[in-house]
Write a structure and sequence with these properties.
Blueprint: H1 4-15, H2 22-42, H3 44-64, H4 70-90, H5 94-111, H6 114-130, H7 134-144, H8 152-168, H9 172-191, H10 205-219, H11 222-234, H12 244-259, H13 263-280, H14 283-299, H15 304-315
Length: 329
């Protein structure tokens, strides 16, 4: 993941924070970049413990850093905190996620990192969405767009998230307007990738297609949602195709097929999610598959594909019983 001298620098800096230099900062950034991509393959739960442990070291370094390196150290520290927040949110630990996003926001404000300030606000909006709080989700997404020096990609992520909030609220016209704006920003970002911060490496026109498809699921436009989600998933790079977060969109695609009355296709897509769960051990995807299966079984109790999906879940040890769904899939 990084060169051997990076290893030595990190050990020395952890033991003697005053020995900070630009090599240490570069090493921290290199390790974090590799960990982001590893999380795409193994899931959030596996990465949470090592990242939070490293963040304790980074926090210590941030506390010791002085000019002229302090701004650079805080920049990397803010990225670590934002990543820890993302991992915590994916693991269902929303209180921990909020704590890390607040820390990222604090460090970003001190260092003058407009992109991280906007990202931290936007991710707090994401956590609000996971908690079912649409008002704060929209408000924080809008607040993330207020910065004047943020990149097109960072702004697009905030705009599309606001659009999703409007879709949840049933405000289709406003959702469409914001999604169109996000598309324009995405095109600009794709043509100026050198302006984008490293933590938005995953962002692309295909990712925005997933976001529009998700918004259309919420708006009940299931046929168009299926087209967009399928196109967005097909556009994902091979190295993330089996990632936990891609599995999340596959669950939504399966649900859209079910809403459209195509139970066979819903089960086929759900089987793809099962493979990702087996690979990543994601408890979140596990729970979502259980809810999806419960809905499929309630509507199509005698369809063989539904029974086969249930058998596969049980064989994998992922579903001991079918719980009544408590939230929409």
């Amino acid at each position: 993941m990084f060169a051997s001298d990076d290893d030595e620098r990190l050990v020395l800096a952890a033991r003697e924070p005053k020995r900070l230099d630009r090599g240490v900062v570069a090493s921290l950034a290199a390790v974090l970049g590799a960990q982001r991509r590893m999380e795409d393959q193994v899931g959030s739960a596996v990465m949470l413990k090592p990242v939070t442990a490293q963040l304790a070291v980074v926090s210590n370094l941030a506390g010791e850093a002085r000019a002229p390196l302090r701004g650079e150290v805080l920049g990397v520290a803010g990225q670590y905190a934002q990543f820890a927040g993302w991992l915590s949110a994916n693991a269902g630990r929303l209180a921990d996620a909020g704590k890390w996003y607040d820390r990222a926001l604090e460090w970003a404000e001190e260092s003058g990192d407009a992109n991280m300030t906007a990202t931290a606000l936007n991710m707090k909006g994401h956590a609000a969405w996971l908690a079912g709080k649409v008002g704060p989700m929209i408000g924080l997404s809008q607040a993330a767009q207020n910065g004047k020096a943020i990149s097109a990609g960072v702004r697009a992520l905030a705009v599309q998230q606001e659009a999703r909030g409007h879709a949840l609220a049933g405000e289709g016209d406003e959702a469409d307007r914001r999604l169109d704006e996000a598309a324009s920003l995405t095109d600009y970002a794709a043509a100026h990738q050198e302006d984008e911060p490293p933590w938005v490496y995953f962002f692309s026109p295909g990712y925005l297609a997933l976001q529009r498809g998700l918004a259309y699921v919420f708006l009940g436009r299931h046929a168009r949602a299926i087209e967009l989600l399928s196109a967005g998933l097909a556009d994902m790079p091979a190295e993330v195709r089996q990632s936990e977060w891609v599995g999340w969109y596959l669950v939504r695609l399966a649900a859209a097929h079910a809403h459209a009355g195509d139970v066979e296709q819903a089960c086929s897509v759900a089987a793809e999610v099962l493979l990702i769960v087996s690979q990543t051990g994601s408890s979140q995807l596990h729970a979502q598959l259980n809810r999806l299966l419960a809905r499929l079984a309630a509507r199509w109790p005698d369809v063989p594909a539904v029974a086969e999906l249930g058998d596969r879940l049980r064989q994998e040890g992922l579903a001991k019983r079918l719980a009544k769904p408590t939230m929409p899939v």
